[in-house]
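Fold this sequence, please.
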Amino acid sequence: MDRQFLSKTLLFINRRNFSELLACIFIIAILAISALGFFSTSVVRTKSLDVFNIADAFKKDVLSYYSSNGKMPSTDDIHTINDYIENEFGWYNFSAIQIDNGAITFTITDNDLKLEGSKITFRPAYQKQYPNGTIIWLCGYQSVPDNMYVDTQNHTNIDNAFLTPNCRKKV
């Protein structure tokens, strides 16, 4: 009789442990799936932020051209665009870089469908009273300050989630 009681007790304990084990596996799977989603979004955001580092170099080229020639450049005026990207940063994230009246638009290309074909524009803004004075750069959906004006178009169409806070649409 003791043996039968012990056998039933062990069977009950094993079923209970198995249920707990399944519950733990289920919880771990949910955590892993949510971490994977966070990780993939984080990777996409990092790739989209590469454009900010490269844009800094282009801003310097645009301002240098402006100070030498007295006008903002277009893509044809900055002859080193393709060489600059290929040599310095690799051509892995951008399918096109356009400069129009000083505004720099990057078209992002990637295997990640979240960014494919997305564009971000960096636009020069001038002081109204002193058009040849201080120039500040506006990125993405950033609004123009009151005492400044912008005479270029914004071609940004990238999702807010992949932009820095100051470049996002105000909602």
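The first strand starts at residue 94 and ends at 100. The helical segments are 2-69, 81-88.
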